[in-house]
């Protein structure tokens, strides 16, 4: 009983000190309450003269989709701590052919629990946009049904999802979040993640490049030349057949390529540190193969398409 009373007295003393040294409201006391309030903010902008879209957020999730009509519709929906609701502002600013969208959020330090659960939705008219750029701190980024010249996303700890995107250039960067792309088309696609996974499905590109660290990379049913590397993450490719050149590097991660059809004309060049390599086919013609299995070279058919794989301690496997 005395021990519990001591903890209560210490807690009361800490709160009293914070109150005493908080004459200008540096700390927010509303965080001690779980009461929330719905917010709904909305703005529009004429899209006729716009070519570029820039969106920047902190903790809010961001969703950019194809809308209806000839205006850009921007809205912020969700719920936040009640006393913080009035401090959220939606920023929509058009300068020349560029529209900048953002959120003004409270920046005071809160004691206790501050609830922020909001989503920023940007609806764009259907047209070829010159550029779409999205940057987020801890929020997720979701792009759907857009087309144009260049799209670039950068997420901190949030996930990135791109669907039905047709841009000449597509770049997606993530910190600890995952990157998922599906049904995307472009001349050049670049996907980079630090600790998150990278997954691409139903893609079509002249060149697809990726870079991962501890996360895994999975490419499924796509078309295009492939080039990428991971540090400790695995690389896995599933395709009907490799029809374009591919170049993969990994440190301790494995590289596995699964094909539905046996290659008609594919040259394979694998070299690993301590990792082993294997090709599951009786029709592969070996030019070089050592006893340690960390060096394989040969081809299917005439070997017009090139597959190059380099690993450290990771293994390599080609299967049909």
UniProtKB/TrEMBL annotation:
<feature type="region of interest" description="Disordered">
    <location>
        <begin position="272"/>
        <end position="291"/>
    </location>
</feature>
<feature type="domain" description="DUF4097">
    <location>
        <begin position="51"/>
        <end position="318"/>
    </location>
</feature>
<protein>
    <submittedName>
        <fullName>DUF4097 domain-containing protein</fullName>
    </submittedName>
</protein>
<dbReference type="InterPro" id="IPR025164">
    <property type="entry name" value="Toastrack_DUF4097"/>
</dbReference>
<dbReference type="Pfam" id="PF13349">
    <property type="entry name" value="DUF4097"/>
</dbReference>
